[in-house]
Design brief:
- This protein is an alpha/beta fold.
- It has 10 helices and 9 strands.
- The chain has a 7-stranded parallel sheet with strand order 5-4-3-6-7-8-9, with helices on both faces. A two-stranded antiparallel sheet has the order 1-2.
- Helix 4 packs parallel to helix 6 and helix 6 packs parallel to helix 7.
- The longest helix is centred in the middle third of the chain and has 29 residues.
- It is globular, with a radius of gyration of 19 Å.
- It starts with a strand and ends in a 7-residue tail after the last strand.
- The structure holds nicotinamide-adenine-dinucleotide.
- Nicotinamide-adenine-dinucleotide binds next to helix 2 and helix 8.
- The site of nicotinamide-adenine-dinucleotide has 28 residues, from helix 2 and helix 8.
- Keywords: NADP, Oxidoreductase.
């Protein structure tokens, strides 16, 4: 079957022509335009959001989804302050230039933070209230993946992966919860897990990553129960294979993987970051007010087979 190039905000992606029409529709329907009607429960107006790993990839798409759902106050938290600030300025410029927001309406800031370091997380979240307000919608998208056979996986790399993916999610969730609990306010925390929390990816070897994402998923359930009566909801969002720098790097090292990924995914293709916008806004907004401790999988059906 012929392949067709489709432009997503993040990547130019080649799809089989049967999927291309549909994907092109998603990518273009997410271009900026005004909506006349939508469910008010999905509005992110009056929410204050923080997204770790927001300088690029899925995290950056979550920031875009929040802006398009009405959110005006967002902190992009990422490892390098310069990249976080550049991404923040780029979003303001893009939405203002497109006329999707008024000039000065968006307060998007970039904050440098290593989520693996508790001190760095405390310092980053400590400055948010005075700069954007009290965070009541947190997404922890900062994460890494590496592929090694278990017997050859360097131990310091395993520790680093768990420090970022697992401890990083915990440190950030805890800072936001402490602030909300201290003021008796409600909020929504979304931990980015992965379909790898539920299945074992093949053929690439990534046991520590899979285990880290299973830990993140169960962390969401555990924190959800711990904070349920205080109005803080915690859920996990688990993507399947999505086209970002993270998967691009894996595919560069092993280009043959792509065909296996397509074959193993019932929908026969990878996802594009835009396809997570609905799920993230649902979980962050009041549309999911009775949803806590859940996992939403957005994986093209991967976990069903
Ligand atoms: N892309 C996929 O197919 C896919 C699938 C399932 C789950 N996920 C998860 O989604 C999340 C985002 O993935 P992505 O594809 O956008 O990856 P990405 O590599 O494109 O982006 C990750 C971001 O996290 C930041 N980051 C890395 N280490 C950090 C640290 N110590 N402190 C702060 N920021 C740090 C990076 O700078 C980068 O901006 C990850 O947790 C990943 O495991 C991705």
């Amino acid at each position: 079957m012929a392949t067709v190039s489709v432009f997503s905000r993040t990547f130019r992606v080649k799809f089989k022509s049967s999927s291309a029409h549909f994907i092109r529709g998603i990518a273009s329907s997410s271009r900026l335009h005004s909506h006349t009607r939508s469910l008010k429960e999905f509005s992110m107006a009056n929410k204050v959001a923080a997204v770790t790993g927001g300088a690029r990839g899925l995290g950056n798409m979550f920031c875009r989804a929040f802006i398009e759902a009405g959110c005006n106050s967002i902190a992009i938290i990422d490892l390098h302050e310069q990249e976080a600030e550049t991404a923040a300025k780029a979003l303001i410029h893009e939405y203002e230039t497109a006329g999707a927001v008024q000039r000065g309406e968006l307060n998007v800031i970039g904050v440098g933070c290593d989520v693996a370091s508790e001190k760095s997380v405390q310092s980053a979240f400590g400055q948010l209230q005075s700069r954007i307000g009290r965070v009541n919608a947190l997404v922890t998208a900062a994460g890494i993946v590496e592929n090694f056979p278990a017997t050859e996986y360097p131990t310091p790399k395993i520790q680093k992966l768990f420090d970022i993916n697992v401890h990083g999610s915990f440190f950030c969730a805890r800072e936001v919860a402490k602030s909300l609990l201290g003021h008796g306010e409600s909020g929504s925390i979304i931990l980015i897990s992965s379909m790898s929390a539920n299945i074992v990816n093949q053929p690439q070897l990534q046991t520590p990553y899979n285990a880290s994402k299973a830990a993140v998923k169960h962390m969401a359930s555990s924190l959800a129960v711990e904070w349920a009566k205080s109005g803080i909801r915690v859920n996990a969002l688990s993507p399947g294979y999505m086209m970002t720098k993270l998967t691009e790097k894996v595919l560069e090292e092993n280009p043959k993987l792509k065909e296996s990924w397509h074959t193993l995914t019932p929908m026969g293709r990878m996802g594009i970051p835009e396809e997570l916008k609905g799920a993230i806004v649902f979980l962050a907004s009041d549309a999911s007010s009775y949803v806590t401790g859940s996992e939403i999988r957005v994986d093209g059906g991967y976990c069903c087979v």
